[in-house]
Amino acid sequence: MSSPPPPLPTSTTATTANNNYNASCSSSSTVLSIKCFNSDCTDVKSRKGWRLRSGDFAELCDRCASAYEEGSFCEAFHSRASGWRCCESCGKRVHCGCIVSIQAFTLLDAGGIACLACARKSFVLSELQTRMPYEVDRLNTGETFSAPSLEKRKVEDFSEKFINGNLRIRLRDIVENGNAGIIGEEQSQTPSSLMEDASAQQFGISIPYKSLSESNSQIEGSVNALQPAPPPPFTKHFHGSLHNGVDSSVDGHIRNGKPRTDARGRSQLLPRYWPRFTDGELHQISGNSNSVIKPLFEKMLSASDAGRIGRLVLPKKCAEAYFPPISQPEGLPLRVQDSTGKEWIFQFRFWPNNNSRMYVLEGVTPCIQNMQLQAGDTVTFSRLEPEGKLVMGFRKATSATPSDQDNETSQIGNGVSTKGDAELDHSPWSKVDKSGYIAKEVLEGKSSIRKRKSSTLGSKSKRLRIEKEDMIELKLTWEEAQGLLRPPPDHVPSIVAIEGFEFEEYEDAPVLGKPTIFATDNVGQKVQWVQCEDCLKWRKLPANTLLPSKWACSSNTWDPERSSCSVAQELTAEQLEYLIPSCKLVVASKRSKDARKEIDRVEALEGEGLDTLANLAILGEGEAFPASSQATTKHPRHRPGCSCIVCIQPPSGKGPKHKQTCTCTVCQTVKRRFKTLMMKREKKQSEKEAETKQSEKEAVTTRKKPQEPSAEKLLDDEPSPSSNTGSESGSPNKKKTVSEGSDGDPKRMKSSTSPFKGQIDLNIQPEREDELSPGSDSGGGMMRMLQDATETYLRMQRFLSSDGDNNPSGNHMLSSGGTGEKNSVMPRCGAAAIKMLTRIILQLFP
DNA sequence: CCACAGCATGGTC
DNA sequence: CGACCATGCTGTG
User: Fold this and answer.
1) How far is the CA of A304 from the C1' of B8 (A)?
2) Where along the chain is composition biased (Low complexity) (predicted)?
């Protein structure tokens, strides 16, 4: 972040680099050539084309230049090159494989690409009003952050220099880097026409499409090389006309008595401190005055800043650049006005620190409280010109959860209400792309104040600290989202080997689908169960069906007989209980009590047999999702040589179907393990009395069925190894429910048995066996494990031999006594049970 | 004991 | 590797 953008080659003859980059375009051209840069063309060059990496422009003949400007260059010359993709929105083919068209598309967050027009359209429509100009510009400029071949930092910096609307920017890096920035051809159309050739030459990537003008942008660049302009990258003049290109309001100014001598230092402010004011914010700040707002910098409040100490740590460079110079640590009082006009006086001072200074604003607590700010929110500093009055604004952080974000309107500035905010690289949501740092600031912000002294974690941990609940929420949300991800339809994955393990790699982004439960039906066919949006009945569909996010019985073209909500569902409640993860059933039970009552006829799901078990094992274990990183990292799926239930099977979705009579390794293993378990169990049971527990369980069983899920809570501390990638399993659920109270044996809760009163704890982690079977608990714990495994076994037996008898409570001698369907976690029982069985066997026969 | 002021430390960039 | 800065620690009133 603090490192400057990697410099581009400054040579004006650097065609080599370009040729490397875009070999298909210009493999033979040289700068000395008078020929068109396009190697497929023999005409004489006459016009400028795309921006080369060197900073120069490809010089094209008239025809090629026209093609380029029309966006048809790649179509004309690269039609057989690789890298063509289709716009996710309009389907238009876009060449994503070379520098020529690099501006023509943008990578979508959810994968895929959007052509520039669609990207701009959707973006402008939805967010132009509220997003930060920088982001708009990213689209305007067609910037593609993810393009791996681009120096990301540089691109980022480029984009940061552009703003939208009537704001002005400084292309300050012209001076520093000589070649930083993005410039659009449209800029030659701007009234100010600041882009004199020299500067244009120094700026990065040209834009072959009209863009800026379409979003009503007026962009100016201050290119006064003699005045290396620091941030702010723009200044808004509310009642003035646009600048003529030289920002008279900044630089060279005497500000608070201090000549701005440190222009270079200021220009090196970290981007995160660059002010990113929206029009609304500026308007708020400016009020009705005729003042010119000069955004200075902004800072996201840290926990310390927002804490009760009342000290706001100022970025050193910002402090030195924009605040009065202080030579004494005591500093001086600083009068700051908030955007409501209220004046605050802070002590601006510093502490000596490592031969340096640490600048702080003291006494900010009242102000921060007044603004109701917390960690994660952003305070902005700007100055009213020509008064030189410091103005402090703020921007509330966006909410942490998607739902919140959907429902809430984040506050920007003082009452400037916008949605989406402009966190940019600070954006909690932009963090999503960056591997797990999801919303860390915001989440931290939610919790940091009251946690101030609570942690002795390392700094990193502290900075990434997320309050537990938030983290859970986040994780679950993420997992749920993951559960919906599927490989794109008809997409054949390529198999890549990493460290000896083969992985299926999907080039295209996953698609979102409706969560479904995968299983195998009675004829060994892979199916998936999907719940109707309306009646909440579960319907069986072919496994390879990719469903939209919303699905109802009426869409059931695969089973016309059940294409109406009035038709009963195939599954018994009991079968559902086994089939559907608890969380889903919780939801279902909440929403569909009535619907369930409507079920007057159920058909049996026959002969699932070991196949189901195996499938469930796959679902539960083999598709472990990285949210449980341990599961994934410690046991990649299908590890060669591993004999676990997962690895002895072919990869999910591959290999033969299992039938009850199947004698494959998997089935035999499962059978053997169950058999062994049952033998051991009988033996053990004859030796040890289990009456107490038995009666206890029976007692619980009696109140098995209907219970409100109100007593449930989500578990948070047990990363489940039994999750899925979503690519083959539709089950998104990792949530587990716990019925509190009724079985409050703490040992039981702690042991490997389930907190769900007898159900298998599906979160057993092989890695944690030690703690799960401590010697101190070997007696009762073992019995419980056996018992629970047995229960599971029996349940499975019932399930597997189900003949349609809709008698869920039947003779559940060993039934868990849980809360019926809502506690069911059957899809993961397979894996857990097998794992448990295996462990028990190992313990019994070391 | 608490709050505050100032310094020190260590992680991150 | 050094600068920055978030935050912990400690002394003092």
Assistant:
1) 16
2) 720-732
For A661-695, write each residue's pLDDT tens digit: 666 554 465 456 556 555 665 666 665 555 545 55
CA separation, residue A59 to residues A13, A28, A193, A734 (Å): 12, 13, 22, 57
- Axis crossing angle, helix A778-800 with helix A826-844, rounded to the nearest 10: 130
CB A205 within 8 A of CB A264: no
Residue A352 pLDDT:
83
Q: A803, A808, A729, A736: which is closest to A529 by C-alpha? A: A729
Distance A380 CA to B9 C1' (A): 29
Two structure tokens written together for A500: 């000896």
Cβ atoms of A181 and A173 within 8 Å: the answer is yes
Cα torsion A192, A198, A201, A202: sign: negative
pTM, whole model, 2 decimals? Answer: 0.29
Dihedral, CA atoms, A669, A672, A675, A681, nearest 10 degrees?
-80
| A328 CB neighbours strand B below 7 A | no
CB A835 within 8 A of CB A764: yes
Res A261: pLDDT: 32
Please list, in sequence order, all residues whose beta carbon lies within 8 angstroms of the beta carbon of residue A801, skipping any fewer than 6 positions away: none
CA of A356 to C1' of B8 (A): 13
Structure tokens at A155: 């691109």
The C1' atom of B3 and the CA atom of A375 lie apart, in whole Å, by 21
Name the helix (H) or strand (E) containing A338: strand A332-338
Nucleotide whose C1' lies closest to the alpha carbon of residue A316: C4
Whether A164 contacts A125, CB under 8 Å? no
* Separate counts of helices (H) and strands (E) for chain A: 29, 29
Average pLDDT on A245-269 reads 35
The burial class, CB within 10 Å (0-12 / 13-18 / 19+), for A687 is exposed
pLDDT interval class at A344 (50, 70, 90): confident
State both tokens at A797: 């037996």
Measured between its terminal Cα atoms, the distance across chain A in Å is 54
Question: What is the rounded CA–CA span in Å between residue A36 and residue A42?
Answer: 6
DSSP string, A432-481: GGGTS-TTHHHHHHHHTGGGTTT----HHHHHT---HHHHHHHHHHHHHH
* Nucleotide at minimal C1' distance from the A463 CA: C6
CA of A459: nearest nucleotide by C1' is B11
Give the 3-state secondary structure percentages of chain A, helix then strand then coil, rounded to 5.
35, 15, 50
Which amino acid belongs to residue A702? Answer: T
